[in-house]
Amino acid sequence: MGVDLGDIFEKKEIEFPDLKGKIIAIDAFNTLYQFLSIIRQRDGTPLKDTHGEVTSHLSGFLYRTTNLIEEGIKPIFVFDGTPPIFKNNTIEERKKIRIEAQEKYEEAKAKGDDEAAFKHAQASSRLKGNMVEDAKLLLGFMGIPVVQAPSEGEAQAAFMAHNKSAYAAGSQDYDALLFGAPYVVRNLAVTGKRKLAGKGIFVEVKPELIELGKGLDALGISQEQLVDIALLVGTDYNEGIKGIGPKKALKLIKKQGGIEAALRELNSGIENLQEIKDLFLHPDVTTDYEIKWKKADGKAIIKFLCNEHDFSQVRVSKAVERLLEASDEGQKTLDKWF
Question: How confident is the model at residue 83 (pLDDT cuts 50, 70, 90)?
Fold first, then answer.
């Protein structure tokens, strides 16, 4: 989930035309979990093939990524590698949360409470089986570049944006800012009308752009101080200090100048502080990646989704047609860059 900096960082609502022709390095795991969470039947049951394998994520990657390409966006999907050792506690905690959510989902479904079932089902989403490899395979058939990060995908996406291999990192989380992404785009995969959990109302979700440099200037802090703030609030690698939210952390860091002095004032500490801080400021990334969009292989997409995972051939064929047409137009635009 990452650290929540939404209370202190300005998010600018944008339209898809604002991103036309731009390369976005998207955190693949973040997007994959979004698809698993929101692409479900009314009672929360995920989409499945006749073998019982979940296919919600494949549906998302095909149809929603095709939508992005039709908007002129050039996506790159960056996949996680080996997580840092500091993340083990977070990973275990998330497993417990998903197990509990699965139990609540099954209880709600047995009672016929579709709304509660859907809410708990979303929280129970988890990766299993060949989900990641199948996603990579489909993206390859679609002609979309895939980059394998050595560690955190968000760190790699941020590096690619910082290195100007991409315009921005794409993620719902704010961690890409901590890793130094100059721009972060949110809501790429969840645009459109979305129902607010437990409220029964719908809201229009649009893409949001966050500019790191502009945000730091407005707050009057440095990149390192932003990381300090995140560490006080709590990240995927540490619990943070109880009772400290983004606004309190900002005030404290600006007053004390850095996290060490802030922790002394709070009479508290953070285990592995310097190692976690270094992880954000000097993340494990690779320069060994290829960014090349290829012509989509329509036959391979149809065979993979329809023959192996029971997708509707009519719907997939239409998506392939849209993808091929949009890819040709997008390539003409991209060629002007090089």
Answer: confident
CB proximity list for 187: less than 8 A, separation 6 or greater: 172, 205, 206, 207, 208
Q: Are 327 and 293 in contact (CB under 8 A)?
A: yes
Q: What CA–CA distance (Å, rounded) separates 202 from 209?
A: 22
In angstroms, the CA 216 to CA 329 distance is 37
199-205 long-range CB contacts below 8 Å, 24 or more apart? 200/115
216 φ, ψ to 5°?
Answer: -65, -40
- Give the end-to-end CA distance of the chain in Å, rounded to a whole number: 36
Token pair for residue 248?
């309190």
Strand partners, 168: 24
Q: Per the confidence metrics, is the pTM higher than 0.85?
A: yes
Rounded CA-CA distance 148/29 in Å is 11
